């Protein structure tokens, strides 16, 4: 009896996660411009650096790891404001809070969908930026691996800021102020991995640290995200 | 309530704004006298009587402002996050007010630490700013304070602003060690030893005694400043309560 009960609740948690994940993906694929904007922004920021600083290949290769990572970070930041916004505006979040399943699962599903629509495309697009900035081809794998492990952490931490500011009219700038200082460790180890890869050093240590941060964020951030959303919805 | 057995009575009394207002009124003069006395003695001792450093001469004396403010900036963050957590868990209004009042004090301490660090860096390292691990993590701490203060300013309802800021400062508290270590590792990776911070020799007692006095003095000054802000905040938020009206306009 007890077994079957836990089983059904497991199922419904998984089901709820899948349903929210699918719904969010569907919504973002129906608004393709929202999907493309962070990517175009990512490309533009990387274009500004050679124009603003120097088109010299050696110089660009040296700063490329940092530039790509900072651009990815800003692109993620740009997309965060929409994470809970429409669900907050039309009252979906309130209904979700009334449902018997924990809010955390819904938040986690939304974060996962956010990552699939921003972090993953950024990762896939990063070799193009690497090429534009003359990053050595050996470093491409390190770049993609570091972004693949690092961007989920960015989505998780960013969702805390998005949850805290969703009730405010002008949340955009405030999110950056709240979230950017928390992004610094990811930036350090992410760009560190690419730098190590570009001079032929092993990257496993950096990736392990990024993985550790992802594990920690995956365990702790959902609590903070759901608390933040709860405050914003009831406030 | 099982928890109530473990916590002392005064902890729950602190939840009453009125009781808190009265007790801080009694404590304030003592802390004020201690702060004035300790800071006075500490500054005269540090600037006039402590021996000059064998390498840095007299320029090291700014340490007596730099170190206490840096310690305070970190302690204030701890206090802010813990007060925020107490406010979230026990729904104490006073804890929310403490967190709210601590944020600007902590931010000013971080600014003082950064400014004195820059002034100290000029004669010692030859430049105002060095991307040293400690300077960088203090700068990030200042950014965290700015985030919390911006959140307080942006939210209209005091109750939800307090909760939101508490969540943010707790997230920051988890992040501070991660930031600290990542900045240190980044620093050792990026910076070959162009600036070797002169390994701190075990300071002689004539040097660290005034520092200790200054640190305790700074803590007393912080308590005075916090109590003054807190008392104001209590009066402002409780302005509709009967006891505040009686206090302001005596019958």
Describe the 3D structure.
Chain B: It comes from Neptunomonas concharum. Chain B: Belongs to the CcmC/CycZ/HelC family. Chain B: Keywords: Cell inner membrane, Cell membrane, Cytochrome c-type biogenesis, Membrane, Transmembrane, Transmembrane helix, Transport. The complex is a heterodimer of chains A (235) and B (251). In chain A, helix 3 runs parallel beside helix 7 and helix 7 (139-165) packs parallel to helix 9 (204-234). Chain A has one domain (15-234). Chain A is elongated, with a radius of gyration of 19 Å. Chain A is built from 9 helices and no strands. Chain A is mainly α and 235 residues long. Chain B has one domain (30-49, 59-193, 203-238). Residues 191-199 of chain B have low confidence and may be disordered. Chain B is mainly alpha-helical. The interface between A and B is medium-sized, with 29 and 29 residues.
Summarize the structure.
The complex is a heterodimer of chains A (235) and B (251). Chain A is an all-alpha fold.
Low-confidence stretches of chain B: 191-199
Q: Count all strands of chain B and give the number.
A: 0
Tally of contiguous helical segments of chain B: 9
> Overall 3D geometry of chain B?
globular
Please give the radius of gyration of chain A in angstroms.
19 Å
Report the C-alpha radius of gyration of chain B, rounded: 21 Å
Q: What number of structural domains do the residues of chain B give?
A: 1
Low-confidence stretches of chain A: 1-5
Helical element count of chain A? 9
Query: What structural category do the secondary elements of chain B indicate?
Result: mainly alpha
Order of helices and strands of chain A: HHHHHHHHH
Please, what is the average pLDDT of chain B?
A: 86
Number of domains as seen in the coordinates of chain A: 1
Helix content of chain A: over 70%
Biggest β-sheet strands, sense, barrel of chain A = none
Q: Return the structural class of chain A.
A: mainly alpha
User: Span between N and C termini of chain A?
Assistant: 40 Å
GO cellular component, one term (chain B): plasma membrane
Main location (chain B): membrane
Function (chain B): Required for the export of heme to the periplasm for the biogenesis of c-type cytochromes.
GO molecular function, one term (chain B): heme binding
